[in-house]
Amino acid sequence: MERWKIYAFAAAFFAGLTSVVAKAGLKTVGADLGLAIRTVFVFAFVMLSTLLLTDAARTATSLQSAGWKTVALLALSGLTTTLSWICYYRAMHEGSVSYVALVDKGSILVTLSLSILLLGEPFTWRVGIGALFVVAGLVVLAGGK
How many domains does the structure of the chain reveal? Predict the structure, then answer.
């Protein structure tokens, strides 16, 4: 199996675990405070990973040559991540984590559309059928609550 697929499946596993653990942690704190605490740890773990698992000289060179457009796009990604997390944590705090997580996965439709339109990624019949299943799942969920 290709390495990127292993990472993708691992990401899905950890994302699912994250939601359940976070919901359990939100029993005694509000959504925003819970998210703030989580974010501090995310920052610390990512920095530790960067320091321990990457070549520092190559990382520094890459950062120096990145340019304003790269930094701006990553900053925008950080902003959209923040907005997503705030909404997700507030929804999870008030609602069922299984329902919130399923609806949140509908974000794949936005990702698919923008990756095709803005990044020029291919639209295949597999992508189309997968998107239809996601839409069908969201319709079922929306009708149930």
Answer: 2
User: What digits encode the pLDDT tens for the residues 56-103?
Assistant: 778 878 888 888 999 899 999 999 999 999 999 999 999 999 889 888
Burial 52-74 (b: 16+ CB within 10 A, else e): eeeeeeeeeeeeeeeeeeeeeee
Among the residues of the chain, which ranges form H helices? Answer: 3-25, 31-53, 56-64, 67-94, 97-104, 107-119, 125-144
pTM for the full model? 0.83
Whether residue 59 sits in one domain with residue 123: no
One-letter identity of residue 132? L
CA-based nearest residue to 144, from 102, 87, 88, 85? 102
CA 119 to chain centre: 18
Same domain, 22 and 76: yes
* Tokens linked to 128: 């189309």
